[in-house]
Automatic annotation (TrEMBL):
It is found in: Cytoplasm. GO terms for molecular function: GTP binding; GTPase activity; translation initiation factor activity. Keywords: Coiled coil, Cytoplasm, GTP-binding, Initiation factor, Nucleotide-binding, Protein biosynthesis. Its main location: cytoplasm. It comes from the Bacteria. This is Translation initiation factor IF-2. Residues 70-238 form the Tr-type G domain. Belongs to the TRAFAC class translation factor GTPase superfamily. Classic translation factor GTPase family. IF-2 subfamily. It comes from Flavobacterium fontis. GTP binds at residues 79-86, 126-130, 180-183. One of the essential components for the initiation of protein synthesis. Protects formylmethionyl-tRNA from spontaneous hydrolysis and promotes its binding to the 30S ribosomal subunits. Also involved in the hydrolysis of GTP during the formation of the 70S ribosomal complex. The chain holds residues 334 to 805 of 905 of the full protein. One of its GO terms (cellular component) is cytoplasm.
Length: 472
């Protein structure tokens, strides 16, 4: 209805256009951005989205090559529960004692930087696990440069290890394998390498491209060498940023502190943040009153790859929100207000992820090249069979990527991965666990359940040909 009156055309014509696109709508229904664009185009209009407008008002300073300086890598530690992620992060934190200080890093601000003996710096996100990693990615924030995948050598490659690997791969983040707990008598690092090889992940000593290192996070053995390997990976990535511009970065965490107000940890990714800067972070804003590093020291400036907690925002932004510095306080306030309004509107607007029923239409429109699929099943055999069959369905028009597969129920982590990678989830004889189902509804992720392999394959085939009827 709204778009019809904006274009001054009869509502029935808009509804007719939608129907010809295979979308049944009523006059009060809200359309997603893509459909709006197509419908408007049919009537000779071009849609301009306010949200894009907002991003555009944030001036992007083009960096000149000579302004770019090397920056520290930002690392996330992932892996199966109890394999030693926290122990590794703690060990690195505690052993990195700066001269003149009694202990290591004592504050938890969500991220910390350490300086190695060779003077090089590495920044760690202090929330281990792929959940936080993917939640941020679902918000459009790509912060991590390198992922350390921790695998306990007295155990096997476990479901969450596989998940972590899939999440890192879906994000295109290089991985280094930390084979942990080698101090234990039952440790068998070779078995881990072999199991990785079975997943087509060959570590360097097996002639592959993945770096790995044997460590004991508990006793600190091998940790320095592991960090050297992180630096090596960073060198290959040639990470650079321009420190001489207003800071931009991402929110890592935020909380309300009784005495100090909102405390927000942000990771500066480029530019330099200074006390007194006016900051916009997500829908919040404010002047930076004070900044602290992970050692609790008050600091005045923070350059690229530096985590800092800042005081002065008017609320708690969400992890994964971008932040920018504004010269003009009024402008920052205006954008914050617009964003708040947009967020309110978006909660009613249908902003959908891909669904199986929609694939055919999108392929026909020529805008859809890749379908990401997450596959969960009750037994390994059926997962592998489905994965093989699905991959074979790839055509010239559309590539089917199985971005994650595994045995077990559909979890929240699967849903977040689907949200971050715009994927559909296929369950074979498994259903989403309670919380996962709710999350899928909220994130609008298409989950399909099957108990017959051929049904799943047929549905996907039909969907690709635009023949699938929507699931009620
Ligand atoms: P997370 O769940 O991956 O964060 O795992 P934790 O770091 O909490 O470790 C789980 C358990 O394994 C704890 O009891 C640790 O003390 C133990 N652990 C972690 N790393 C090592 C190690 O290198 N050697 C030994 N022997 N135990 C370890």
């Amino acid at each position: 209805g709204e778009i019809a009156s904006m274009m001054d055309v009869p509502i029935t014509k808009v509804i007719g256009t939608c129907m010809s696109l295979g979308i049944m709508v009523t006059m009060n229904q809200r359309l997603d951005a893509e459909t709006l664009t197509i419908v408007a185009d049919e009537f000779g209009f071009e849609v301009e989205f306010i949200s894009t407008e907002i991003e555009e008002t944030i001036k992007v300073v083009e960096d000149r090559e000579e302004d770019l300086k090397s920056r520290a890598p930002i690392v996330t530690v992932m892996g199966h529960v109890d394999h030693g992620k926290t122990s590794l992060l703690d060990n690195i934190r505690k052993t990195n004692v700066i001269a003149g200080e009694s202990g290591g890093i004592t504050q938890h601000i969500g991220a910390y930087s350490v300086t190695l003996e060779n003077g090089k710096r590495i920044t760690f996100l202090d929330t281990p696990g792929h959940e936080a990693f993917t939640a941020m990615r679902a918000r459009g924030a790509q912060v991590t440069d390198v992922a350390i995948i921790v695998c306990a050598a007295d155990d096997d490659i476990m479901p969450q290890t596989k998940e972590a690997i899939s999440h890192a791969q879906a994000a295109g983040v290089p991985m280094i394998f930390a084979i942990n707990k080698v101090d234990k008598p039952a440790a068998n690092p070779e078995r881990i390498k072999e199991q990785l090889a079975q997943m087509n992940l060959l570590v360097e000593d097996w002639g592959g491209k993945y770096q790995s290192h044997e460590i004991s996070a508990k006793f600190g053995q091998g940790v320095n060498e592991l960090l050297e390997k992180v630096l090596l990976e960073a060198e290959i990535l040639d990470l650079k940023a321009n420190p001489n511009k207003p800071a931009i970065g991402t929110v890592v965490e935020a909380q309300l502190d009784k005495g100090r107000g909102y405390v927000t940890t942000i990771l500066v990714q480029a530019g330099t943040l200074r006390v007194g800067d006016y900051v916009l972070a997500g829908k919040n804003h404010g002047k930076v009153k004070a900044m602290y590093d992970e050692r609790g020291h008050s600091i005045k400036v923070a350059g690229p790859s530096t985590p800092v907690s800042i005081l002065g925002l008017d609320g708690a932004p969400t992890a994964g929100d971008k932040f920018n510095v504004f010269e003009d306080e009024r402008e920052a306030k205006q954008i914050a207000a617009k964003r708040t309004q947009l967020l309110r509107e978006q909660s009613v607007r249908t902003q959908k992820h891909i669904t199986l029923a929609e694939i055919g239409r999108r392929i026909a429109l020529g805008q859809f090249k890749e379908l990401n699929v997450i596959l969960k099943g009750d037994v390994d055999g059926s997962v592998e069979a489905l994965s093989d069959s699905f991959s074979k369905l790839s055509t010239e028009e559309i590539q089917i990527n199985i971005i994650h597969k595994g045995v077990g129920a559909i979890t929240e982590s699967d849903v977040m991965l689907a949200s971050a990678s715009d994927a559909i989830i296929i369950g074979f004889n498994v259903r989403p666990a309670g919380a996962a189902k709710q999350l899928a509804e909220k994130e609008e992720i298409d989950i399909r359940n099957y108990s017959i392999i051929y049904d799943a394959i047929d549905d996907l085939k039909d969907a690709m040909e635009g023949m699938l009827s929507p699931e009620m």
